[in-house]
Amino acid sequence: MKADLHIHCSASFDATESIDTILELARENQLDLIAVSDHNEIDGALELERKGEAAGVETLSAIEIDCFFGSNIVHLLGYGCNLWDPGFTRLKNHYIEELRRTGRQRLQLIEEHYGLKLNEQAILERAKGRPYTNVEITQELLATQTHPLLVPYQSGERSANPIANFYWDQLAVGCWGYAELRLPEWKQVTDYVHQCGGALIVAHPMQNLKLDETAADQLRQGGVDGFEVYSSYHDERGRQFYHEVCQRWGLAETFGSDFHGTTKPNIVLGQTGYDGDCDAAVQVLKERIAHWR
């Protein structure tokens, strides 16, 4: 079995490809199981659920929920839950309003930091009717501005995945460009996903937790069902660390490319960092889902 359980479609604020395109790419890459797990958004996952069987690809319902873990932010992947529960629609609407609220704040921070002025109307046009976010602001910044601190993202060592790299380097929690979103607490998310019959997996933990075993254990004790061990963001050290964590505590290990289409151009659907047979690990995940159902 070959699986990619962390894919974003155009329903997500930061991704570009349709469900039809994702299904086509899944067949091209000979994937047996996929999940669309958009940020605080369910429309793409529900569309995939409708179309997957006809396309000959097994699918798993999923969502990626941004939440606070202490002063940090973690992304938690809910698998197998009932996405028709009205709480997911409330989560979606709240997140959209938060993106709208923080967009202008982040734009001002970036303009002040680099001493420049961006064309807000052009940023709005890039957002195509949605609230503009760090994605559209960064696209406009890198496409139109000249500044020595931007060179690494425009043509240097961070340019292969410029929007994501700019976010993690400059705009994430603890950085000068962070605009605080009002997000749920991780324990609320864990309890809610379990109530909806789903298993809860920590997405790309090396991005948020690094090699912090104490934090990983706190999440385990709080109810998470596993970690995304194999991710396009993880090097061999990170994969080994979280593989050992899951083995030690009997948790589920998952596989995710975090594909976003053209907004993360160096990430290929199906390339998760694991080339072996996913079947045994997927069965553990399905057992966790069955437990909560």
From TrEMBL:
Pfam families: PHP (PF02811). InterPro entries: PHP_dom (IPR004013), PHP_domain (IPR052018), Pol/His_phosphatase_N (IPR003141), Pol/histidinol_Pase-like (IPR016195). SUPFAM superfamilies: PHP domain-like. Residues 3-69 form the Polymerase/histidinol phosphatase N-terminal domain. One of its GO terms (molecular function) is 5'-3' DNA exonuclease activity. This is PHP domain-containing protein.
